[in-house]
Amino acid sequence: MTILNEFVERRRLKRFIVRDGAFAVLMPGSNKLGQILDLGKGGLSFLYIDTGQAADGSTALDIYVTGNEFYLSKIPVHVISDVRVPNKIPVNPIVMRRQGIQFGELTPEQAFSLESFMQQYATGEA
Predict the structure, then answer these.
(1) What is the pLDDT of residues 3-27, one digit of tens each?
(2) CB 63 within 8 A of CB 75
(3) What is the pLDDT of residues 78-121, one digit of tens each?
């Protein structure tokens, strides 16, 4: 069973692939900034470079798209998973990780913005 299949089996809500250029950063002051892989109403997953620093207890997440096309801040979150992604190039020293995030209780404005983001940047079902 692949890593992706393990994630899919636990999800209760549909996830959608997000086009390139969409990023997430854990707040406050996290070293975890990465490309969003997929997103749904209940959460998202993103890929980031493992810097070797310990978990920081982040409780919020910002979503943005390059070129100032979109920005949504301070989404309450819970980290659900954080797994190492197998390296396709064995000699590459960079370690990538995939973090699964569950959204907390969103404000009506955040829920509306998240829905708008999904409509604009989702490219298909994950």
Answers:
(1) 454 444 455 678 899 988 999 998 8
(2) yes
(3) 999 999 998 887 777 888 999 999 999 999 999 999 999 999 99
Contacts of 28 (CB under 8 A, 6+ apart): 58, 60
* Contact assessment for residue 62 and residue 71, using Cβ atoms and an 8 Å cutoff: yes
Beta bridge partners of 96: 49, 85
The burial of 15, by beta-carbon neighbours within 10 Å (0-12 exposed, 13-18 middle, 19 or more buried), is given as buried
Taking the mean position of all CA atoms in its chain, how far away is CA 73? Answer: 13
Cβ–Cβ under 8 Å, residues 97 and 83: yes
What stretch of H or E contains 77? strand 70-85
Give the span between the Cα atoms of 3 and 81, in whole angstroms: 11
Type of residue at 123 = T
Question: Tokens 């960079």 belong to which residue?
Answer: 94
Query: DSSP secondary-structure letter at 101?
Result: E
Q: How far apart are CA 25 and CA 21, in angstroms?
A: 13
